[in-house]
């Protein structure tokens, strides 16, 4: 079977280039932060009622305010983290573009068979 180099990354800039596949999130990737924040807000409300000695359903109208507010906070946190990461990687990319001499191109990929030396078995007693 012939060796096929499917690796499209040949330099450090290729590694940092925009890739649609890497930008896609999983099934829950976009929604886990708002969901966790909403559940945490509801749990905080219920635990406040529990520690105050009140029934859990007391002031349940507050849940209608707290859960969407916490979901919005989760969306804001998610988007701010993504923007922070984009800026960080854009800075790395810009540095690599300004200083290409510090980042030589990747060497050619070597097969395992090319690294093995010829071997002659020598068995004592034969």
Automatic annotation (TrEMBL):
One GO biological process term: mitochondrial electron transport, NADH to ubiquinone
Keyword presence, Membrane: yes
Record InterPro entries: NDUC2
Keywords, ordered alphabetically: Membrane, Transmembrane, Transmembrane helix
Keyword match Transmembrane: yes
Annotated transmembrane regions: 31-48, 60-77
Gene Ontology CC annotation, any one: mitochondrial inner membrane
Signal peptide interval: none
Name of protein: NADH dehydrogenase [ubiquinone] 1 subunit C2
Originating organism: Megalurothrips usitatus (bean blossom thrips)
Lineage start: Eukaryota, Metazoa, Ecdysozoa, Arthropoda, Hexapoda
